[in-house]
Design brief:
The chain is built from twelve helices and five strands. The chain has helices spanning about 5-30, 45-50, 65, 75-90, 105-110, 115-120, 130-135, 140-145, 145-170, 190-210, 220-225, 240-255, and strands at about 55-60, 90-95, 125-130, 175-180, 215-220.
């Protein structure tokens, strides 16, 4: 082949190769034009940071909420909070609004107070114990026990309970609410079996009222005290002792999702 022809072909090939390389460089430059040198990090909340977010708990009700009878002073509320802190590693802020001797009528008035509503509004969890003073009246209810009277008392109590739960939900639609059922402290006495029937019926109706509301859980305690009631009662034979409160706290804790 003529050397001039070979030379011409070589020059043309080199030319097209250069054109291709220039085009490739241009295309790559266009692709990365305007792009940052470093891809920004995605803002995300680490699991550790989530766990450090505090949990706000409001406790409402009577002497069981206050922990009367517990020599440690914690009651079921305090034991439950210790359990939550241990399992979740999260700080917990507690507002205990329980009042010794409080009845459902009194609690229905308390939850209407502006400041109480504000506390409920901030809560992630609400704990409630109420009804024991309506039914037992500090033990007096057993002395003049009558099935007819207890039915009338229960009717008024259920009306109050419905109102209380409505007020809680009006102030806070999202908090988990745990309503603690009644146990029978008089089960070993002469009228204990009759009283147990009343308490079981009372708890059933309370659970039915609770079930009508979203995220309100009825927590049964009757079975915890049924077989060894005196082992779990304070010296007044009415309130739980330290062991009794721990049983209640463990029952509530078993219903939590960590």
């Amino acid at each position: 082949m003529n050397k001039n022809v070979i030379r011409s072909i070589t020059v043309i090939a080199v030319f097209f190769c250069l054109v291709w390389l220039i085009g490739l460089g241009w295309a790559v430059g266009e692709y990365y034009a305007g792009k940052p040198e470093k891809v920004p990090e995605v803002n995300s909340v680490s699991k550790k940071a989530e766990n450090k977010k505090g949990l706000t708990i409001v406790a409402l009700g009577d002497s069981l909420t206050r922990g009367t009878g517990d020599e440690t002073g914690k009651g079921y509320v305090g034991v439950l909070i210790d359990e939550i802190k241990e399992k979740t590693k999260r700080p917990v802020q507690l507002t205990n609004l329980g009042i010794n001797g409080q009845t459902s009528t009194q609690l229905s008035k308390q939850v209407q107070q502006t400041e109480i509503g504000r506390q409920i509004e901030k809560a992630d969890m609400v704990l409630v114990t109420i009804g024991g003073n309506d039914l037992f009246r500090g033990g007096q209810g057993l002395a003049d026990f009558d099935t007819g009277d207890s039915a009338a008392i229960e009717k008024k109590y259920l009306e109050n309970l419905k109102f209380i739960l409505e007020e809680i939900r009006k102030n806070n639609r999202n908090a988990n609410v745990f309503f603690i059922g009644l146990y029978n402290p008089f089960i070993d006495l002469d009228q204990g079996k009759e009283m147990s029937k009343v308490v079981r019926h009372w708890n059933y109706d309370s659970a039915e009222v609770s079930a009508a509301f979203p995220k309100i859980v009825f927590v049964p305690t009757f079975d915890l005290f049924e077989l060894k009631v005196n082992d779990y009662l304070y010296s007044d034979k009415f309130h739980p002792n330290t062991k009794g409160y721990r049983l209640i706290a463990e029952r509530v804790a078993s219903l939590l999702t960590w």
